[in-house]
Predict the structure.
Amino acid sequence: MGTAWIIEDDREISYSISLMMKLMGHQSQIFVHPRGPMLMMHRNVTMPDLIILDINLPEVSGLEVLKFIRSKRRWDHIIVIMNSVDDSPVTVNKAMNLGADGYIYKPFTIEDLESEIQQAYKKRERP
């Protein structure tokens, strides 16, 4: 399918998501700290097609990372799926208003993740 970055500070969860992505046909790269991918984006490295982004990260929140991603037009093509244990409507709405393409609650299954990704791509296809 494509390439995915997993930005998740919990190593067990990040490896689980990476395995799910592999089973769905995506190549993935794990980042346990958000500064790494942010630096890579500044350096114009090859960007992923998809980012699975945890909201509760150390030092920089996932919402701040999302704002950063959406601040540059050249990154508009990147699908961003937020993930969190926080299911409050306020947080979900904030993420969606900042430009998230989807939001998934932990814990989730491969079917949940695949469905959320497919919905995000379908939304992008609409005129």
About this structure: The mean pLDDT is 93. The radius of gyration is 13 Å.
